Amino acid sequence: MFTGISEEKGKIQAIGNNYIIVECTKVLEGSKTGDSIAVNGVCLTLTEFGRDFFKADVSPETFKVTALGNLRGGDYVNLERAMHADGRFGGHMVLGHVDGVAKIVSIVKNHEFFDLIIELNSDEIRYIVRKGSIAVNGISLTAAEITGERVRMAIIPHTFENTNLSNLKSGDFVNIEVDILAKYVEKFLSTSDNKSGINMDFLERNGFC
């Protein structure tokens, strides 16, 4: 489990049909073979590492359903180690199980902040609510505005400068993970034996959606 707070911006050293090698330092502290590291929000297993790099296996399916397949040597990625049980939640509950890929519509400076607009598909947009959480390339962000299948997020300077958002542009693709709580709510409400009295009307009346 992760929190969506990127610890380090690593650089792709090499990428092959079934592996990825990332140049980094901070996320290697205390790490060992078999540990989980989120790479642009994708939970991967550390299979080999040295003083300033790690290698992880990547299945063809993972390359297919995430934006990792678009990466090239020299590209930057967001890195986060799995959260310790006694750790602090700085973002939101992120599993590292990417739901899909979204396209960046625009990312522009707005005074000292940055406005990021991405376009999702109907499978993911239904889980996004205004002021709700969404992980973009593994970064925990808040949906400020939703228009159709587009979501706008306000990015603070620190996040922009310390993640690979500063290296992206319109037309690039990013990994998306929606809030897992939204999926559980949908599953719970869809069961035929729901006798709790909790339904969409109840959630709306009490400010949950």
Sum this structure up briefly:
By secondary structure, the protein is of the alpha+beta class.
Write the SSE topology.
Elements: E1 8-15, E2 19-23, E3 36-39, E4 42-49, E5 53-57, H1 60-65, E6 76-81, E7 100-110, E8 113-119, H2 122-125, E9 133-136, E10 139-142, E11 145-147, E12 150-155, H3 157-162, E13 173-178, H4 180-190, H5 200-205
Antiparallel strand pairs: 1-2, 1-6, 2-5, 3-4, 3-6, 4-5, 7-8, 7-13, 8-12, 9-10, 9-13, 11-12
Mean pLDDT: 89
Question: Gyration radius, to the nearest Å?
Answer: 18 Å
CATH-defined architecture of the largest domain: Beta Barrel
Determine and state the CATH class of the largest domain: Mainly Beta
Shape: globular
State the domain count.
2
The succession of helices and strands, N to C, reads: EEEEEHEEEHEEEEHEHH
As laid out across the biggest beta sheet, the strand order is 10-9-13-7-8-12-11
Largest sheet: 7 strands, antiparallel
Runs in which pLDDT lies below 50 for 5 or more consecutive residues are: none
Q: What is the count of helical runs?
A: 5
Fraction in helix = 10-25%
Q: Care to count the β-strands?
A: 13
Assign the structural class, choosing from mainly alpha, mainly beta, alpha/beta, alpha+beta, or little secondary structure: alpha+beta
The portion of residues forming beta strands comes to 35-45%
Reported by name, the CATH topology of the largest domain is Elongation Factor Tu (Ef-tu), domain 3
